[in-house]
Amino acid sequence: MTVIRVIDFETSGTEPPAGKVCEVGLCDLDLDARKVMEPRSWLCGVDAMPPDVRAVHHISLTECAGEEPFRADDMFAHVNGMPAAIAAHNAEFETKFFTSPVPVICTYKAALRVWPEAPSHSNGALRYWLEDAGKIAPEHALTQPAHRAGPDAYVTAHILLALFDAGATGKDMVQWTKEPRLLPTCPLGKFRGVPWPEVEAGFLGWMLRQPTMEEDLKWNAQREITRRQKGAGL
């Protein structure tokens, strides 16, 4: 059985060490059987729970009291054994809190590549978009409540299965995870929402010159510039 373990964290903050994992969710995808297993989750002990992050997942400090602190090894001590890879939606967030001993797949970055036409690439939006298209059929009860680690991992596992069904390979997705996110359209300025081939060359150059511009955005701009240069035979 080839297992990819989908993970999701709820945390007490967005950056370690101040932010810590307060809930872990796991959901295994049996790739050979094309089957999403039932999710499991557990709370972890933390020493603070700021109101702004509690407002996202609604986990209280009292609920975490007496629980063991997060241990990454617990995610790999599982009945299905060591996975071939792990996956998460926006894996850049989860991998701030631990170092994976196996390859990592970011379903967010993969979805941007495979479904650039999707109305949104958030976990929830992709779930309903793929469900409406008949490409996934998660059990609704296991998707609830939203913004909790177990249900979110379960949703992501279905998105991952749909990515494989669409022809993406594990090797592809591991490589895409290592690269910046490939955005289907320009996300800012007067060209917001415009496909990259339609963005003026001057604007692309301006993006590269901005010292505070996100590196992912510069990468997308440079990628389009390089594409045009190759097309012109330069």
Automatic annotation (TrEMBL):
Family annotation (InterPro entries) = RNaseH-like_sf, RNaseH_sf
Name of the molecule in the record: 3'-5' exonuclease
**Record-linked CDD domains:** DEDDh
**GO molecular function terms noted in the UniProt entry:** exonuclease activity; nucleic acid binding
Name the domain of life. Bacteria
Keywords, in A-Z order: Exonuclease, Hydrolase, Nuclease
